[in-house]
């Protein structure tokens, strides 16, 4: 259909499911007269309907037809239905395109009726619907502000909240038949920032923290002014340092705790202020109740004594001491793992915190021998340690794993695995150790064996600790990197690290405890042994327990030397876009990395720069990304470069049937090939490559590859997997790979998206002969 047909207006007829254009009697004109259109009415024939196709919904033609209630559509609707092979879309209103088909919008915060009327018309022209009231059927909320009931409901239900610009930008792309406004990549740019219409001030924070919060306020759509400015809508208060407000509160300003600020950033939406309102320390509900109870009693009444007991109980409950140490400098944040066998340097790591009362408190021993005292200290530190691990899991790991988070997942799956590792396993074994120590102290005698408790779980400690301790430095680096690059994760940490359970310690400081725990336990067991008499059977058991802990720490230190190859797996995950998360595995390590150029049409186009990552059981194949015009832009205006490589396939080494060492010829230099058989293919495939890096020795690379293939398929004859082959027999050539003509040819091939199929028919007999 020529574009001239849509220059002004076309009349069409619809009969059942088919579209028939009638243009033989129609004359293209700028103005439409009623006499000319009347001849195309089929009012007496119910099988036909007049449909007008217009390319301009602002023209006089459109106004004329719309006022007379004619059915009007735009060219994209016709093309969309033709592409889908569907009948023409029915709409009781003029329909220009299907850009907002199946979208249901609701508006809030608009005061200019003319602007809202224009937006509603655009939505209808793009196939969307409008709902006056917010409900579960609404797919998008268009908001001018972050106030109102509709906004709160949208936040609670996870409905996207967008600015009016989203509608205008979608209308600009109305002629793109394949475009849809609901695509997440498109609409993310138009999200309403959490602090839109908010003017914040900050009270009680250090200059560094205040500067950080002011910067994030601007990034999330708000403004900031000094405390006391009448234009402020919110005052964010550091509740732990502010005891008195500098002025009397006003109904025109929200006085909120810092948790409201960080919570809004974490949700990527303005949080409700009601549950975050700041209260003076002496205005807390418990304190008010205490004062009320004391003021209502008389000096000589028995009732006073009972109420006084209730009051004190309430107050002590509110001021319960945390099992964590008081705030201090944080050397652990910069602490490096070091050698765990050198326990003489870890004396400062022994926990000396107040023990948190357990469900069955340890009774006081009458004589309180030195052996009993150190054993009790061991139990107290074990109890505190379990509480710390529980805090890490309950306050950090589980909320981050929770499904249906507002704004989507905060961290990716591989980041979660890197940060928390085997913490659940460590928590499980130490919970049981704590329970056994509690039972031991409850029925204490000098002959009770402390050493048996740790001997009992020695194998589980060996399994649980090395995976975490060996990767602790990477865990710490991942936390720091994500906190810098992901504002929602930074906000999540700020909220939870301020809670009493954390004792004002960072997640990194909490996670270093497993690194410190085993050396401190070894010291305490040595102390118990020192206070155990020679005729006590537990003395030998304690020696065995200490040796078992040293064995665990030795195992950790030996594994650390093997960890460098394993750490590189994480580098691969972040370097390769789309890399499968299941690449991360405790048994997997990176063996070799090779830079190559593809010589065939498998697994990618000829001439592509391909990187091969050889692991001990699989081969990750990734190509260099094609030139990207724009870097990724987040809703906050931040930009970051995309990963340099694009995932092609992660292939188990068991799929490699033969490794071909291609002989050097005039037309083929430094090349090799793999004969592979994926389970989804009926025939063998040929992957051919040329080594790109001069420092890579082909023979070394191929022998290393064959050795790991043989290990994977349990074969001893690794050398037999290599076969020296003439490249001409496979029609493989490296000739002109770097020539200008060849590069231009590849560029044209990529641009036009024309892929020439590679026929395997002529090569099947060749491949079969190599097996």
Automatic annotation (TrEMBL):
UniProt source species: Gouania willdenowi
Ranges for region Disordered: 314-334
Pfam families for this protein: BRCT, ECT2_BRCT0, ECT2_PH, PTCB-BRCT, RhoGEF
Any one GO molecular-function label of the UniProt entry: guanyl-nucleotide exchange factor activity
GO biological process, any: regulation of cytokinesis, actomyosin contractile ring assembly
Signal peptide from the UniProt entry: none
InterPro entries given in the database record: BRCT_dom (IPR001357), BRCT_dom_sf (IPR036420), DBL_dom_sf (IPR035899), DH_dom (IPR000219), Ect2 (IPR026817), ECT2_BRCT0 (IPR049396), ECT2_PH (IPR049395), GDS_CDC24_CS (IPR001331)
SMART domains (alphabetical): BRCT (SM00292), RhoGEF (SM00325)
Domain DH: 370-559
Top-level taxonomic group: Eukaryota
Protein name: Epithelial cell transforming 2
GO CC annotation, single: nucleus
Sequence ranges assigned to domain BRCT in this UniProt record: 102-174, 190-278
